[in-house]
Amino acid sequence: xxxxxxxxxxxxxxxxxxxxxxxxxxxxxxxxxxxxxxxxxxxxxxxxxxxxxxxxxxxxxxxxxxxxxxxxxxxxxxxxxxxxxxxxxxxxxxxxxxxxxxxxxxxxxxxxxxxxxxxxxxxxxxxxxxxxxxxxxxxxxxxxxxxxxxxxxxxxxxxxxxxxxxxxxxxxxxxxxxxxxxxxxxxxxxxxxxxxxxxxxxxxxxxxxxxxxxxxxxxxxxxxxxxxxxxxxxxxxxxxxxxxxxxxxxxxxxxxxxxxxxxxxxxxxxxxxxxxxxxxxxxxxxxxxxxxxxxxxxxxxxxxxxxxxxxxxxxxxxxx
Length: 320
Description:
- The protein is α+β, with helices and mostly antiparallel strands.
- It has 2 domains: 18-198, DNA ligase/mRNA capping enzyme (D-amino Acid Aminotransferase, Chain A, domain 1), CATH 3.30.470.30; 202-306, CATH 2.40.50.140.
- Helices cover 15% and strands 33% of the residues.
- It is built from 5 helices and 18 strands.
- The strands form 4 sheets. Strands 3, 4, 5, 6, 7 and 8 form a 6-stranded mixed β-sheet that branches. Strands 11, 12, 13, 14, 15 and 18 form a 6-stranded antiparallel β-sheet that branches. Strands 1-10-9-2 form a 4-stranded mixed β-sheet, covered by helices on one side.
């Protein structure tokens, strides 16, 4: 389950996307839909294609359709930055459906349903493009993937009023939008040149345990934590967002990493504690005054070792 880290070119550690409250204004900003999936880079090399996660793990075997389609692109070498998603019947990305397609949760969704939306181009036929402004990288990306209907597609970009675009995105049930400064180069880490504005609050929290359900072999509540300094702090439990079948599958997964040493200071009768190796994607309304999640709903899981998006109580936000 927890795979070894792959060796890969140092250049792409992934530009972080900073969460902000409102879309930026001005003609230097372009906007895209915020996709709800796994951030990946597709490395096209002579004789092979590799798919690498933000944490540097080789997930090539998980995305055979994307690998096959990448071989058809008219390039010798390239690195595409983008998001792997599964679309629902209304064309919206659904993280839960993606996890089911990857076999993490039970479903009839097949791996072939996964689509990679490319939104940046870091290398092309031996040239490092990261120093170029966003608009130039975009100009080089579009003829490679625009108009395709296969497993690799272009994440459409619009230049519009950000607040109006956000309003339309939220009205259509999307997670939010991404704003990108068209004059900025590509730099890994946090910087503010890429910003995300969400319709609802949604973040990642470390799973530190669970409470069993009254339903046999199922989970009643996940016990969640955020980071604070170098420690983990309990921020509440989440008991909604899954079917009974998914709950049983999730409990089976967590039971493989049980521990007698809780990662947080918490006394709760009947709780089962686990090693802090997984994070839960959670949608919620707000925070209580004592720093607990209000009305959280489970959306999916990720491996902590491959995800730099755990919510920080110090910063009051995450980057992703």
